[in-house]
Amino acid sequence: MTRPDPLPRDNGSRAIGRLAAIADLDAEALALLDTALTNPIMVPARRELLSEGRRIISPLLVLDGWAARMRLVPDGRRQLISFILPGEIVGNCGFEAPVATSTVVALTQVTVCQLPRSGSPHLERACAISRALDETYLMAQVVRLGRLNAAERLIDLLLELYERLASAGLASGGRFDLPLTQEVVADALGLTSVHLNRMVQQARKRGDLVWADRNMRLGDMDHLRRSVGHEICKVA
Amino acid sequence: MTRPDPLPRDNGSRAIGRLAAIADLDAEALALLDTALTNPIMVPARRELLSEGRRIISPLLVLDGWAARMRLVPDGRRQLISFILPGEIVGNCGFEAPVATSTVVALTQVTVCQLPRSGSPHLERACAISRALDETYLMAQVVRLGRLNAAERLIDLLLELYERLASAGLASGGRFDLPLTQEVVADALGLTSVHLNRMVQQARKRGDLVWADRNMRLGDMDHLRRSVGHEICKVA
DNA sequence: CGGTTTTTTGACAGTGTTCAAGTCCCGTGG
DNA sequence: CCACGGGACTTGAACACTGTCAAAAAACCG
Known about the structure:
homodimer, 236 residues, alpha+beta, 4-stranded antiparallel beta sheet, DNA-binding
């Protein structure tokens, strides 16, 4: 018996739902997005969506799957800088002719579409808010790495991912699909996979999470939030 | 005998020079900035320029002095998220009615002015590029905290500060004014001040830096860059 | 089933923190 | 002019957290 399809494949409605959740979208914006959805692009896992130093052709809206910005350090280790989830935007720079300042890689198979080049003020505002959210996620990542210990980093990240996925309708009741290996999570948290594994086991013993089969279930989230001082982001 | 004035107080020409260095400014943009400069605002050290959760009235251009975004964690420790230097912009959100998502505090006495609300395409582009640079600095901070050890974090940060100050004409020949205590630097690097102090001493013994009297002088910068894998940021 | 990737375990080394005390520097007030 | 006080820097010893290395167990994939 195979595992049931882990990701809801719904051709972008979740992604648009997320944009609509962070900013009003009028009929014009929705029509632009619907058109864009007719040209989905499938990217296999491990392929780069954006390469550092390359020009950005067009911002991309992630319809399905997980991607991440990352940077390699000379000694071969890598740091995941931020995750990019369905409904979020890759290459959202706010000005013309930009060069990518980091590499974005598909962590799972990813479906994207080109983001309509403006025209709609509502859509532009959604992009601006999405960009501001990206920035708050980056700041949260800095605080995580700078001032939380390994156990706290894990919980804090999981809470953030839950909230971000929930805004796209991809998480509820403390549960969400987490299609990542422990090694990838470790690379995001600035830890070794060995140590991350110990933190995961510790969290399991405490009843803070159940993680099996790409499926994450968080325990008492209010309690978890308080225990790591996690705050929910809002920009507008 | 008192210490000579450590900061060039020049009423904003350095700040405008930095904006002009990252994007062309036409006569219109320069005129707008000149007008803005006539209303400088002095902010004493330790005062907040922006408070988390408060509305942002207008983006501010830093003319002189150092500020930083920071966040406090419940146990009382703090993390400096990013530094804000002359010529850089506070509250540069790219959309209307935003709420600050972090606290910005003056690390020294700071002089700011309100940034003219658009009108000039050149100025808008400069703001967009400045925003993109802010993002690359945040990403660099994530990599620093996630994948560099204490000694490397220190050198990598100093190299970044040097390059940022140099683009405003405030650093050259490996030297710049660093009006920060070791404790503040430690808070930026996710270290304790005790450990940062040990790293500073180690760097001194190696001849990597001379730091006295708010004055920083870096040793062989090409060598330092290679030793920590530091890359110089460019976005356009 | 066989090879590969991912997770798990153990012993040990190393990096960074904590706590506590001491020093240096500088501005203030007697 | 010097004593005082506070902040910043420095030092040491003990300790905690995280990394390293190596290997085994488990899960996954074709």
